[in-house]
Specification:
With about 400 residues, the chain is an alpha/beta fold. Helix content is about 40%, strand content about 20%. The protein has two domains: about 10-140, Sulfate adenylyltransferase (Roll), CATH 3.10.400; about 140-295, Rossmann fold. Helix 8 runs antiparallel to helix 13. Bound molecules: zinc ion (ZN).
């Protein structure tokens, strides 16, 4: 990027960089620029922008004393450098600076300003008292690259319908597999948006990406599935998520969005309202939204079923809760294969517990069948064979 001749700087975080990147790449259309004070008021009043649902004003209001000093003393037309983690990431030409109320801002985003909400405390720290609008440049190419990858995939199979699914796959289990396959039955191309949050409480993004890619490459028609990274910043938080997901998917070129029942933005509304009311909240965004049925394992049907098609009661059902399956993996326990495909469990355990199996050769050769075939078994080979052994039953 060409350097800008100014020593006045705004310090922004990675979340702001990714949000500005989405805006610049046209993925939040019809919002194509930072909102000024008048637009901010309009969006606050109507929750719409140019006839399209938009849950809160899209503004840049970085916190911190230095930022506040700069913003309160800037003039129209001044260029400010944008820095993130000591790296120059862009610049903004100031059009307007106006005061905002950080607490109100947080409430607009999360629907609450109560600090017990996990996002509220975090976001309060990053929202300042002033917002700035104006033309800007940002070094963030990921969104554009993803857009091009989707376009290329669509052209290569001449896709008529492209369906978006937002996935955390933390971890990828059998109900995810079913959701993806069922979606593929009804569309030409599936775009899996793998969410990349800014918190580290989960399986790392790298492991989740590796596992999802392995599944797509080995078990799905590869030319009909694209994996795209979606940095999951504060703009997707809480009850606004469905609106932003729909908008981003539409602008990436998808004409359908499939939402799983455990989707955060849905869960909150799903319990209280019908499907219809969720879709009603998404106005002016030309995309078909479908909420998938819930999948469970039924021990009477002895298979994965939709709760709509199984006559047995809840007490026969095992639900696919990612957090509980993740809990098993974090304890080093292999999840049953009805919950998770063995290759995927093995990959994750290898990543979570590097080199933990001592004397693997002896263990492998002593307790596993066809032991002679592999001379130096890896942890992965060991897990796979062990899982197969768990599934072996005695005939007597
Ligand atoms: Zn059943």
């Amino acid at each position: 990027m060409e350097s800008v001749k100014t020593d006045r700087t705004l310090f922004i975080d990675h979340e702001a960089v990714s949000a500005l990147g989405l805006l610049k790449a046209g993925l939040l259309h019809p919002v194509t620029k930072l909102m000024g004070s008048q637009e901010t008021e309009d969006v606050l009043r109507d929750a719409q922008y140019k006839g399209c649902s938009f849950p809160f004003p899209f503004i840049l209001s970085p916190s911190g004393i230095t930022n506040e000093k700069v913003l309160s003393s800037t003039a129209v037309g001044e260029t400010l450098v944008l820095m993130c983690d000591s790296v120059e990431v862009g610049y903004i030409v100031v059009d307007e600076v106006f005061e905002i109320n950080p607490k109100k801002r947080v409430k607009q985003i999360y629907g609450t300003d109560h600090e017990s909400h996990p996002g509220v405390k975090q976001t309060l720290k990053r929202v300042g008292n002033y917002a700035v609008s104006g033309d800007f440049h940002i070094d963030y190419k990921e969104a554009l690259r993803a857009k091009q990858a989707i376009q290329k995939a669509k052209e290569s199979i001449d896709a008529k319908h492209t369906t978006a699914i937002m996935v955390a796959v933390n971890p990828l289990h059998r109900a995810h597999e079913r959701l993806i396959r069922q979606t593929l039955d009804n569309t030409d191309l599936v775009v899996l948006y793998l969410l990349k949050p800014y918190t580290q409480d989960n399986l790392s993004f790298e492991i989740r990406h590796k596992v999802l890619s392995y599944f797509v490459e080995n078990f799905l028609p590869q030319n009909r599935v694209v994996i795209v990274t979606l940095e999951h910043s504060y703009i997707f938080a809480g009850h606004n998520e469905v609106i932003l997901d729909a908008l981003v998917a539409k602008n990436y070129g998808c004409d359908r969005l499939v939402i799983g029942q455990h989707h955060a933005g849905v869960g909150m509304y799903y319990t209280q309202h019908s499907n219809q009311s969720i879709c009603d909240r998404v106005k002016g965004i030309d995309i078909e939204i479908k909420i998938s049925n819930e999948f469970v394992y039924c021990n009477e049907c002895t298979t994965l079923v939709s709760t709509h098609t199984c006559p047995h009661g809840k007490h026969h059902h095992i639900s696919y809760r990612s957090d509980s399956i993740l809990n098993l993996l974090q304890c080093g326990i292999i999840p049953p294969v009805v919950l998770m495909r063995k290759e995927l469990s093995a990959m994750i355990l290898c990543e979570l517990f590097v080199g933990r199996i001592q004397n693997i050769d002896k263990l492998y050769h002593d307790i596993l069948p066809s032991a002679g075939l592999i001379e130096e078994p890896s942890d992965y080979d060991f897990y796979i064979k062990l899982i197969e052994l768990y599934q072996t039953t005695s005939l007597t």
